[in-house]
């Protein structure tokens, strides 16, 4: 008896996904093979392209926070705290300039990502894995077998703090990953201090909760796409960590959902993008917003970026730390909206759920 069409289609899709994964060459391998039409596993449904930017939204830009005046005087410091508060409560995104990380370090980090992905497939294969518990993971689409459609993106992820896997890091980008991570960790402590003060808390509150203790680098490569109108570089999602610091090159492609429309976040030289993650929205009881964003595919490339995630999800701990709405931020009039969870539980749920476009926070929300 012939299998139902839906079952047959699903079976064919699984075979195509497995065949793609077995190459261990990623999307870049497809491009190097000369593909002119993207495989069906990368074709996104039409609703993935809804809410595209209108003319009004193209005039919008996310706030820019100048950290250069942070220690100038108390008034300048407070102005920066106020800007961070407004951006975190309204947009969930802001850009930082004069952040203390030299432009040469930023540029070399992007060069390091290029160097890794430009290696021969046979060399990169040694890092290719679906075991997300490893400290160094190279693959294409962590949710390849669970997502509605694959994204036009390859990734190298490395757990850089508190214990970086120094000898395991790929040689083409090892030194700059270490140097860049050390700089980002310093910046993270500054940012968590500003966010703490923006909440009316002691400057060390979020750092004392270990929000800045763990750091993961996700180095993304978005190869040029022959049919960018049919796929996405990254599906719409929120970040499931406490905070993200993003370094992107000048090609662009990042968009955030603002007032129900997708708007571009054009790259500015020397600037880093900061966005609130799910766990920080949970801690602040919805005061700070973890906002949906995505990356569009482009005919030019490869585009590269480095997403620096502050989280404790991969840190081994005999007694995992519980995170729930901060007690100083809840009251009888503003009761807790989420149950307590561990970063490990949130991370595990997020990976199992994949980038399906639905907020993971709903799973932890109190009825």
TrEMBL record:
GO terms for molecular function: dioxygenase activity; L-ascorbic acid binding; metal ion binding; oxidoreductase activity, acting on paired donors, with incorporation or reduction of molecular oxygen. The keyword Metal-binding applies. Residues 213-313 form the Fe2OG dioxygenase domain. Pfam families: 2OG-FeII_Oxy (PF03171), DIOX_N (PF14226). Keywords: Iron, Metal-binding, Oxidoreductase, Vitamin C. Signal peptide: none annotated. Belongs to the iron/ascorbate-dependent oxidoreductase family. This is Fe2OG dioxygenase domain-containing protein. It comes from Daucus carota subsp. sativus.
């Amino acid at each position: 008896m012939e299998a139902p069409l839906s079952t047959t289609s699903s079976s064919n899709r699984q075979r195509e996904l497995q065949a793609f994964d077995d190459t261990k060459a990623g999307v870049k391998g497809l491009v190097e093979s000369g593909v002119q039409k993207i495989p069906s596993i990368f074709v996104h449904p039409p609703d993935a392209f809804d809410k595209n930017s209108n003319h009004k939204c193209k005039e919008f830009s996310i706030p820019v926070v100048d950290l250069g005046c942070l220690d100038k005087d108390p008034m300048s410091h407070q102005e920066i705290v106020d800007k961070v508060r407004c951006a975190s409560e309204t947009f969930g995104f802001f850009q930082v300039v004069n952040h203390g990380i030299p432009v040469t370090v930023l540029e070399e980090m992007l060069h390091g990502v290029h160097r890794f992905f430009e290696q021969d497939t046979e060399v990169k294969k040694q890092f290719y894995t679906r075991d997300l518990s490893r400290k160094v993971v190279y693959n294409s689409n962590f949710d390849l077998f669970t997502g509605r459609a694959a994204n036009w993106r390859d990734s190298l992820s490395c757990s850089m703090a508190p214990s970086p896997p120094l000898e395991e890091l790929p040689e083409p980008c090892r030194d700059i990953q270490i140097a860049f991570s050390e700089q980002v960790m310093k910046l993270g402590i500054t940012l968590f201090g500003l966010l703490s003060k923006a909440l009316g808390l002691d400057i060390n509150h979020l750092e004392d909760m270990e929000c800045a203790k763990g750091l993961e680098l996700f180095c993304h490569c978005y190869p040029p796409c022959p049919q960018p109108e049919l796929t996405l570089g990254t599906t719409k999602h929120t970040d499931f960590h406490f905070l993200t610091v993003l370094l992107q090159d000048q090609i662009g492609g990042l968009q955030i959902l603002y007032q129900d429309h997708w708007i571009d976040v054009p790259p500015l030289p020397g600037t880093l993008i900061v966005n609130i993650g799910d766990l920080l929205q949970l801690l602040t009881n919805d005061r700070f917003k973890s906002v949906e964003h995505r990356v569009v595919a482009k005919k030019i490339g490869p585009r590269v970026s480095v997403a620096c995630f502050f989280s404790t999800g991969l840190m081994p701990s005999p007694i995992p730390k519980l995170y729930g709405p901060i007690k100083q931020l809840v009251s009888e009039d503003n009761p807790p909206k989420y149950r307590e969870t561990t970063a490990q539980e949130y991370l595990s749920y997020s990976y199992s759920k994949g980038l399906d476009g639905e907020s993971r926070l709903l799973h932890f929300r109190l009825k």
